[in-house]
Specification:
This protein folds into two domains: 100 residues, Aspartate Aminotransferase, domain 1, CATH 3.90.1150; 233 residues, Aspartate Aminotransferase, domain 2 (3-Layer(aba) Sandwich), CATH 3.40.640. It is 43% helix and 16% strand. Strands 2-8-7-6-5-3-4 form a seven-stranded mixed β-sheet, with helices on both faces. Helix 2 runs parallel beside helix 11, helix 3 packs across helix 10 and helix 12 packs parallel to helix 14. The protein is globular and about 60 Å long. The model has no long low-confidence stretch (mean pLDDT 98). Bound molecules: ligand TLP. The site of ligand TLP has 15 residues, from helix 3.
Length: 348
Amino acid sequence: MMRVVDLRSDTVTMPTPAMRQAMFQAEVGDDVYREDPTVTALEELGAATLGKEAGLYVTSGTMGNQVAALAHTKKGDEIICEAEAHIYYYEVAALACLAGAQVRPVAGDRGIMNAAAVRAAIRPRDVHQPDTGLICLENTHNRAGGTCYSQEGLAAIRALADEYNIPVHMDGARIFNAAVATGVAARDIARHADSVQFCLSKGLAAPVGSLLVGSRAFIDKARRFRKMLGGGMRQAGFIAAAGMVALQSMVDRLAEDHAHARLLGEALADLGYAVDLATVQTNIVIFATDGLKIDAPALVARLKDEGVKAGAPGARRVRLVTHFGVGRADIDYVVGVLAKLRKEYQTV
Ligand code: TLP
């Protein structure tokens, strides 16, 4: 049987035996009545881990981000985010459709916005212009290849937000990858944001769900929007139980995924692939198909024939994501396949 290595995303991770056990045994109740002790425990653990007052269990990262936007802004506000941010790029124009906000994209350096660029995008109070209602940061930045904000960069944006009294939301789908990579505790990263959304179902390997954390007043508001969007779940403790295991036992091992990504990135660079190693800070490797007689979707199809599943986030960009369940031997296999394909498709 051919080996299959699925590097399309860390969302493909499967629950661990400990998660399955916890799900089987979970104590549950109707969470819309706030009677599910496991959901409540997960929300409290998530909030405490990120140093916030309260948490809200949501179905997905997308729901967490959108509920946050709804709770922070009013119709007609403008939301500043990075030009390739997930909330802008991959959430089906929900900011426009749900919050009724418009986006002000700001180009970052490898996905990381600096305070000066954010300052330039803040609207003056003017009868013609929208209010800047929210600054949204993505950490790690997905389309930039898993890059992390520095504490200094975050502090500068926080100071700016305070100066203008604008809330900051962090799309921290992979905030624990940022914490492990930078050696800064997740709560210290989260300190710079009023609200943070983080995913349990990516590198942490839970089957479903994200947490939105922030002040109690903010979470009370967000809970109503979650209900409006149909995200009020009933005996959700069954899935929250896996989320508890994810938060308690799956964070530190992310370092292994980062080491694998680094190994893969360096091997690809050695083979001559166009990879910007400065972006390979966590568990994502993106390379361009420069110098190849094949575009990214075709290369992804070719890789699939060889048992390697990858993504194409652009016509000339291929994405590989390392995660739980992918071992060193898998990485060596992927490098072998890419070495072979490089010979087949290189132009010189
Ligand atoms: N990202 C997915 C796809 O949607 C692209 C992936 O495979 O990487 N914020 C960030 C930064 C994300 O990367 C994602 C998911 C989300 C939010 C949304 O999370 P879900 O998929 O749970 O709605």
